[in-house]
Fold each of these.
Amino acid sequence: MVSLIPQPLDVRHAGGHVSLTGVTVRAHGLDEHAAARLEDLVTRLLEATLPAGAGKPDVGPPADLPVQLRVDPSAGPDGSTSDERYSLVVDADGATLSAPDAAGLLHAAQTLRQLVEPVPASGGGEPTARLPFVVVVDAPRYPWRGLSVDVARHFSGPEALRAVVDVLSAYKLNVLHLHLTDDQGWRIESPSRPELAKLSSDGDCSGGKGGHLSLADFRALQDYAAERFVRVVPEIDVPGHINAATHVYGDLRPDGVPTDAYTGIEVGFSRLTFDLPATEPFLRDVFTDLAHVTDGEHVHFGGDEVLTMEPDEYARFVELCERIIREAGKTPVAWQEAAKAPLRPGTIVQYWDTHKADLTYLADAARAGARVLLSPANKVYLDMKYTADFPLGQEWAGLVELRDSYDWEPEGVVEGLPPSSIEGVEGAVWTERIVTTDDLFTMLLPRLSAVAEVAWTTPERKDWEDFRRRVAVEAAAWRRDGRAFHPTPQVDW
Ligand code: ACM
């Protein structure tokens, strides 16, 4: 039985298998550089699935399976307009992956990776592997399938973030949202304001040494992610969650006095002040710097939990941040609170706060042209504890077991929201209580794979019992790659 996450739109079994001990991957229809990079990446993904003992036979014909990657505008489901759609055929001659674009080809390769079945050794031979004959035709439900990672409360450096990108790509997620600044730290070099990272990045919420991404780190991370068709969406959180900046610049404060460094985990106490002369230049500098180094279309300006500001002043901040980000050529994204202010059409608002019952303002903003990204905290905040006694994470949004992350319908979470306004689904992991990379992955896995299925798969194709079975199969890849995960009792591992 094949085991794919996220569940594709259509999988047909032809009966039969082809065995493999190696692969020869060839890409057609891409420029030479793109073809070589994709061939190399897909070869490594597939070779990693082969049993350690598998290899070229000493005698007999070479058994490398041909894997053809073909650019083909007609690939994918009939009528799909997604530029990530793909088709995949495995038969006795090998595997043929087709897609209109390289992103779809990599999605097809991730599907192929999951189709590889280990074959145990028999009769003194080596273990091998095989692929079932199948035809897969697939496309995502939503264009934005992401994960937000808070690198401000505890810093995750480039190596950990590359590992996150690998897991995003494995489940066909395509956005890495980085929460780069908060009260506790400024984790990105801002060239116009070098003091920010210099003076506000060398600590975290548990007395650690902190850190930040240099522009070279950020560049390299975006390149690594882009090779895997993952976009980085950077966030500088304003006008609240801003103590890391008011700690550096006293002129952002009415009293002119820089605030103390903050290592606690309270929220909502810090703020900018619109009418101070230093405020707009600060916002222009940091957002224009960030837009210039961002390859993708989106820059996030936060906007959440400004608990000590009147609505009029808050609305002026929203208007100004949107304007600065648009002038820098990007599309603004903000947390749901921004929808309480008038928004320009096309701005993306990110729903998160599942304690708030009246979301009329969010549905109204969507009807007026805002796009909506769904991150309901009680489903996809992956820093919430799995169970009350779980040693990591928090529980202010509730306990979030694997099934909670899986069993929800995006069109049902915000009353009155036009389904056509939904841009996608994004998980989030806040790091007040998450320190190490193993902590991070323990919270992400297996729940991130559930979020991926919610974001990719049509509701008719989802099935919790079947998903439980498929997740257990995926754990082999996590173990092989040394990823920590939580073996929740909801799954027979
Ligand atoms: C948030 O969780 N404050 C966006």
Amino acid sequence: MDTAEIRRRFIAHFEQNTSVGAHTAVPSASLLLDDPNLLFVNAGMVPFKPYLLGQATPPFPRATSVQKCIRTPDIEEVGKTTRHGTFFEMCGNFSFGDYFKQGAIELAWELVTKSQADGGFGLDESVLYPSVLIGDEEAVALWKRITGLPDDRIVRLPPKENYWSMGVPGPGGPCSEILIDRGPEYGAERDWDAGDRYLEFWNLVFMQDELSAVRSKSDFDIAGQLPSKNIDTGMGLERVAYLLQGKNNMYETDVMFPVIEHTEALTGKKYGADHGDDVRFRVVADHVRSSMMLISDGVTPGNEGRGYVLRRLLRRAVRNVRLLGYEDPALPELFPVSRDRMGATYTELHSDWERISRVALAEEEAFRKTLQSGTQIFDLAAGDLKRSGENRLSGDQAFKLHDTYGFPIDLTLEMAAEAGLSVDEPGFRSLMAEQRERAKADARAKKGQHADLSVYRGILDTHGPTDWLAYETLETESSPVALLREGRSVDSLGYDEIGELILDRTPFYAESGGQSPDAGIIEFEGGRLEVLDVQRPVKGLVVHQVRVVDGEFTPAAAHGHQLHAQVDPEWRIGARQAHSGTHVVHAALREVLGPTALQSGSFNRPGYLRLDFGWTTALTPGQLRELEEISNRALREDLPVSWQYMTLPQAKDWGAIALFGETYDQSKVRVVEIGGPWSRELCGGTHVEHASQIGTVVVTGESSVGSGSRRIEAFTGVEGFAYLARERDVVDQLTGLLKTQPDDLVGRVSDLVERLRAAEKEVERARTAQLLAAAGRIAEQAVDVEGVAVVAHRASGAAGGDVRTLATDVRGRFQGDRPAVVVVIGDGGGKVSLVTATNEAARARGLSANALLRELGPVLGGKGGGKDDMAQGGGSEVGRIDEALGLVPGLVGRG
Ligand code: SER
């Protein structure tokens, strides 16, 4: 049975169920949901978390989905065993306070054991073993009654196996898994946790608890019961696929294996012939698919967070193909194979293909360059080590290769091993840890927020969500709900102290969707707070970071709506201009570059905006001008701006652009339009009412932000005009300076540059001529040392190339049989430049320029190197140049 059919049967089974009731089929959410605890969606239940936790009312009592997931804690382990991959699809059925254990067990058992002819998976009952959490005798009794299996076929396991949580605070509960016995060749009988014999393929979670802390799979704190008992199940699509296809593991299914086959064709290697190669084949198959799905959901390669995971996946895929022996660009070969297997379900892989493949290819190209330059650096470091008789690459060097050249440590380790060197890995790891700590400290300092969200959740639970009025008003009378300082509840804030204030209602816009938080003040009787930042650390709760700028703030002493919250109106106008400006620039950009140019991130604050988008080449000046022109035309035409709510499918039908990384509520999204269909985006930001209110859009620059991603920056409103005024000032000053008109400015400046260049060339020519003229004179000053003409000359003010030219030229004056040794030492730039040279006759007498240099170098506090005919070096001891020159005749005599 192919994977598509398994998927179809799963959904149909739940959608058409009549015993507990029909389930609503929900399409897979993006891999990127806005959960501060999760890098990626890692289980089928993640999109339903607010319903499971009782934070939002579910629009349906039952649901079913096949959710794309990514788990990346152990990328290095991928392929070494066949059990795990980074990307997988989870089939699930969910009950939100509807059916519980009995319904879940009945539904799962029916689908698994029903014959294939009747639409089930037709697995043989005699090899199936349900597991339950030790102590959950209710589940044991249900399994026995529903399946008719004897007691010893129901396996009781400890919490490590059969208590499920997200690994972070959130919902959890005891679970029950269905295991399949794959036979004695996979391990010992009834050995539940070792080996691959008893494979778990479906996990039924009886979700009833809310966890406040999770330290490990068996060590967690249950804060209380969830408002309702829920069901969350997850059936691994890949696992069921290989079981039903009679294969050994997930890499051999109809979806994954074609990538391995294509890799075989490229590399000429065979899967199944060598363990090391097999691991590489599997890494390639897994990483190609995961990275394609991530790019499709809007991640671009970068150096942190999601972008970094993507970069690692892509680079590991490329490198493993290389290790298998294929050196040409591999992703253009392999991505289409994976797309063709996944594209029927995820149609955006086809419609967005141009962008997806461009991002992947750009990263591959960048990595190929990295490999090239990093390899050179590595070779140099390895050479130095060997020369100095050492064989251990320092942690510092490995770190530099990683940090500066993007060289993964495993690559360094491997190349070091090939070169017969070891690597100070602990040293490297500790430098990495230091860097991470620094980054974390930076992030903490920037946000002033607490990683532990439970405090905010507690406030939300007790007081309910903030009444958020940012769309309606700029000021409200509000009551304080909670006051925090460094994560703890406090009664007061003294003058100049900073804390976090939660109000029952607020007009302040919390940072989101790229729009920066509102600025403003909150007045209380006897004083004032300045609002420094506004965030929404948990959904529904607006938190103001405030500083007391007047008086002392003691909220409990007052009562009623005693606070006056006031957004700075100027700030908000600027913010609205900038945010609408961002939409305008985005729409204009898509007009210039075509619809594949898609925003991947944005930021705007009053007067300024920037927009990042997936694109591999720099925009030409013409394209930038066009972008600015189209943007300002939208302003001149005064396009109307409006917003309305609709369901997500409606919004998509409308062609609204959903931005990556945002969580959208399927049933209600906000669509902001500028000029009807011209710009339609899902957006929760604040906007102007019609485009001319933006004032102006001045595009100031375009740059690269990592491979495959470009950034546009622009000023809006008053800032835009101020920017132009500054430019006009510069032009004024230049015209004044050059005594010319603005229109002639470019001509005048290029004229000047031209003349400057010519003058520099002339100076250079004169200097060389002077040097060469001196050469004859210097040669004449040669002294004779045992028949060798010895020149030891100090070239005042000369350095580097000049010293070398001079030495070469002086040596050239001694032709024929007369041996000559020339030493020229320059002192230009406050440093020693030393060149030694010998002619052929001198070398015939055994005199070596390099040997001479080695004698002189230490005197001059430096070193250098070369050959017998010419050697060059530098040093710091300018004061000892004459002494060094004095040594030359003696050294020649001795030689
Ligand atoms: N959430 C559970 C899991 O991920 C069941 O869906 O295994």
